# Entry
Amino acid sequence: MKLLITIRFLGTGYCGWQKQKNCITVQEKMTEAAGMLFGFECDVTGCSRTDSGVHANMFCATVTAKGSDSINTTVPIDRIPRAFNNFLPEDIGVINAEWVENDFHPRYGAVGKEYEYLIFDRAERDPFMSGRSWHIPHGFSDSDIKNMNIAMSAVVGKHDFTSFMAQGSKIEDATRTVKYAYFEREGNIVRFRIAADGFLYNMVRIIVGTAVEVGEGKRSQNSISDIIAACDRKMAGRTAPACGLYLNKVFYNQAD
Amino acid sequence: MKLLITIRFLGTGYCGWQKQKNCITVQEKMTEAAGMLFGFECDVTGCSRTDSGVHANMFCATVTAKGSDSINTTVPIDRIPRAFNNFLPEDIGVINAEWVENDFHPRYGAVGKEYEYLIFDRAERDPFMSGRSWHIPHGFSDSDIKNMNIAMSAVVGKHDFTSFMAQGSKIEDATRTVKYAYFEREGNIVRFRIAADGFLYNMVRIIVGTAVEVGEGKRSQNSISDIIAACDRKMAGRTAPACGLYLNKVFYNQAD
# Structure
């Protein structure tokens, strides 16, 4: 059996999930913690690569003995989250642990993901939202948000999202199916939620950056279909900063 | 005229408000920023000392030219918050600026303050609440919170709070009038709010620490009156950690 671990992390101090040279990553911290907890070297495999500075409200990873597709431990499953946390820095927290079959893969087994993006739009900055949101001081009216949501309705469905993919990405098929994509106000926060069967590199951040330009009146709320049809990154808007992005949910088939 | 500045700050990286040697404080950062903004040395006077690691949702300070009780500037008052923020680190933010009379004092002029204290009581830690709350993993039931509130009802009113003051504090009269003090659940957070005409050193943190012991069943919900009457710090509970405490509001007479 493999261990399936659910974690949350504040991405500010990390160069994303994936192990890298000369840069601290969440995978590295998780791998070190697993080794200390179980007393032998472990492999930790994540559900997604995330960019530097991106956060996760929910991120899934499997833990196995190094080079193996399973792990043996006498630590009871319900004690594993707190035991793990003893070896993790304060900005990473294990919130759940369960047993899954050896053939479970946290990335290829995922049938969908939900991301959240937070925009803080009060004029003056809020130190408590710094590094955890995109600060846009000019503010969005209800009508701006309505226009952004009209724009987002064109994103929903099955499309080739080449225009919303970072240039230089090596992807053969950029077709993805978006289930929902909408903005809603919650106090001083404009919250964006998007779910799809998969996401291209920088896709959420480019969609948000483009939608913000709609909200700012720089683009028409009816321009998205043409941007999608062009299959050209230059047609879409700027890439929203990483600090506002949260991986929010990972969906697996219940049978898994 | 003096400038009255309202700020918010995340206290994690600071040794509190008050300037100190060998330690970075919020007052120091504000004084540096004022100097850069106005082009001459300034005095920045706060409404309160705060402990190391304590946060502020609202903190008031006056800005004057060094050694003077007023300040002259051509910067329009509505531009001052953003101009100030250009010279401040991300964890301090000016949210308002207004003119007040030369005899206004942000500390002695305050007629009351409200503090907030956040307890995060889910079993597993939340990286997003780390440094911003007290993590108590065992959790509080509705009945526990009810008992804590029964205890808090004895704190409300005019009392000598010597038992809830850090030992060694040099205060002649420890009498303070508490207007309200209550806990309420908000999701995984147990939020405490307390307002009084003034607070003694560590008073809120000792009250919270004692109330938590009531919630944990270690003290009776009816024990607070005896603790107050004893005028002895040893009778009260532990001091709750600084990271959960927020100065939430400062009250001035409307005439000021």
Q: What stands out?
A: The interface with chain B takes residues 8-10, 55, 57, 81-82, 85, 90-96, 123-128, 130-132, 137 of chain A (CB under 8 Å). The CA atoms of residues 77 and 97 of chain A lie 6 Å apart. Chain A has two domains: 2-100, 112-251. Chain A has a mean pLDDT of 95.
